Amino acid sequence: DFLCISLVNGFIQLRYNLGDKTIILQTFQKVRANGNTWHSLQAGRVGNEGYLDLDGINITQKASPGMNALDTHTDFFVGGVPSLNLVNSMAVQNEPTGFTGCIREIVINNRELKLTVTDAKGGANVGDCDGTACGYSVCKNNGTCQVENSGFSCSCPQEWVGSTCEQSIHCSQNRCGSQALCIPQPTSFSYICICALGWSGKYCDSKINFFIAKFIGNSYIKYTDPYYGKRDLQYSRISLNFTTNQTEGLIVWMGKGEDEDNDFLAIGLANGTLKVVINLGERISVPLIHSKYSTCCDQRWHFVTVVQNQTCIKVYLDEELILFEDIDPHRKYTALNYGGICYFGGFEIGRKVNIVTTGLFQKEFIGKIKDVVLFQDSKKIQLIKAEGYNVYSGNYGN
């Protein structure tokens, strides 16, 4: 399998192979070769459908039905490869040659690659396109960069301040407390504080403790399992209590949530029903959906347990077995390599649930969670000791 983007006779070409045949897409317009014009390029695939977009002009094409996973186990190369033997003969139209030009702002699966000496795994014969201390995107938020003897300076738009225009004027004198995030509110010429886990109040200056976590939206807890290295990942288990009045929401995501190669086990709500999704490998997500509607969204406490015994999945709701399925009788992948990471309620601020989960869940969780137990541990997870934001005490009242 492969996916390759190349420049062929002035046209951008995308080629990918999911295991049966090579699909080729090519732009209708040529790339200007004057060296002064930046072009915006988006390319990739969703399932078996490939897409290619150059400066807003889009084309798509589908591969054969049944082929929808890109199974590659190599490094990601930009601009060239160290050996031509790494290039599949069908990945390019002519003999493979290195790219000459400038590349910036590469985003892979919603994560930007840092094309620097310290961040890249390796490389050779690559220089700075700009050639000055300003470089690319030194000045944030549309700031203008000026080269100076001491390096550079940024001229900031009216709404931004700081050496690189990184701070909103509305947050420059903020009173947000310990580890809180200041979120500017330009329309009201003000700001709000989003509190770190364990803090509350308008300015996040009140220390709190809780055993029931209350998620109010735009909330998350990220728990790192200290016993991950000792787990038998072929036999996973998670149980918890939750209550909500919402019909949509991600309750828990066991997995790194970084890219589509990561294994995961997820529990949430979709259209008022309990939904469990598991991926043990090859990016094949198997959704299991409870058939009864509106059983979970009545503001009562519900107890859910998910047990993974290799490829056999059991889901219990209020101690009743509601789902039981062998997701792969061939037992090709049997371990849940979740990286020791569990997200509750959502993901980090700015990471949208529908994007990170590729549409498996639509929204963050709004409600309460308590009594979380992993595997056969004798103790419940102390959620208050994890990391997170915008989560408050649900111990009392609403």
UniProtKB/TrEMBL annotation:
Give the lineage. Eukaryota, Metazoa, Chordata, Craniata, Vertebrata
Q: Which InterPro entries match?
A: ConA-like_dom_sf, EGF, Laminin_G, Neurexin-related_CASP
State the species of origin. Answer: Balearica regulorum gibbericeps (East African grey crowned-crane)
UniProtKB keywords: Calcium, Disulfide bond, EGF-like domain, Glycoprotein, Repeat, Signal
Check the record and name the CDD domains matching this protein: EGF_CA, LamG
One Pfam assignment: EGF
Q: Which branch of life, at top level? A: Eukaryota
Which protein, by its recorded name, is this?
A: Protein eyes shut
Under the heading SUPFAM superfamilies, the entry gives: Concanavalin A-like lectins/glucanases (SSF49899), EGF/Laminin (SSF57196)
